[in-house]
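User: Working on a comparison across species. This one is Nucleic acid-binding protein from Agrocybe pediades. Can you predict its structure so I can line it up against the others?
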Amino acid sequence: MVLGIFGSTRIGFRPILLHRSLLSHSIRNMSVAAAASKLRAPVRDLVLSVTKDGQELGGQSEADEKDIVSWIEKVASGTFVNENNLKDLDTLLVPKTYIATNYFTAADVALYGEMHPYVAKLQASEYYALPSVTRYFDHIQTRPSVWKSAESMGDTFKVVEFSLDNAPKVERKAEPSKKKEKAPKAAPAEDSAKPVINKAESSSTPDAAGDKKVKKEKKKDGKEASAGKEAAAGKKGGKAAAAAAADEGEPVPSMIDLRVGHIVDVIKHPDADGLYIEQIDLGEETGPRTVVSGLVNYIPIEQMRDKYLVAVCNLKPANMRGVKSFAMVLCATSKDGKDAGIELIQPPAGSKPGDRVYFEGAEFENATPLPQLNPKKKIFETVQPGFITLDTREAAWVNQATKSVHKIRTASGVCVAPTLVGASLS
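Assistant: Here's the predicted structure for Nucleic acid-binding protein from Agrocybe pediades:
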């Protein structure tokens, strides 16, 4: 009887809880629609079209909903976006993929619509100077729901084409200034007063030359020689010098920067049928990275959403049909080929974005990966043939020379493929 009472109680409550949930969701959507009604006519129409009269793209919680409504009202104020404050918007958007939350909402449609007339007038030199505005605007305008609704409204929200191939390179002035400051300290005050001709004469003097030869021979012996190399490398300064040294020698897997990532958004590439564009949270303060993956024909988009994965984070960024990709998703490909199956490598349960992924083994576990892999040295391509999944489906790197097995793991456990055994990883 006790079980029966509890059972009937649960059955009685479920419809009530479901009704309350739907009612709460409906009220939140109404608040989005009410905020959208304050927007100027074309932007309001676009927002209502994309959100299906406010029924979609609301918040997933009441707190998110308040943020979304607040941002829509800022846009509707008429002063938040104008041609004179695009620089301020650019700064605001530096760490953001979306304006109100960490996922696409009605607030993004409103901001895109209000920005459109100003961004559409920018010349190449002007949008080069607004990289975050350009990135954000292009990401929103290429979303299928926005693109379709904008197309139905004629030329009001015509697609803005950005040519980024000729964008000027960023000048880094910090390092040269440090070198200039160090240069005077390196030379003693007495030497600076000596004529150059004296140095030349002293170097040609037999005794002086003999002394130099002795010193050089000593430096070439064992530890003194290596110390000399380290001192020379140290002149380049701190971490940069260490990275350059780590880049030398045979490629090893610990040079690769692997991290746990979380897909917070994924869409199909508007100009490539086989590509996804993902926003992947890697635990970085700058926000999610844009990553392009050729997985459309192998993994349904529903299985990509909200997925935790392993990402290769120090490859050189690459343009993929007009979209720059800043990482690579690590996948397992069946030993029978792509058509037999491709799966995302999964980190252990409980993993968080940004968790370090490393290779087992004393020589690898505490090694620091390179800041960026040099494409000319083909480090990843050299190491990759050893990436496999074991009979246990665990991801690993097998040393081709020694046949030693080094599992790929986080501090919480080993990374695995869902089903594939003997698969190659790339």
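For your comparison, note: Residues 117 and 157 are 8 Å apart (CA to CA).

User: Helpful, thanks.
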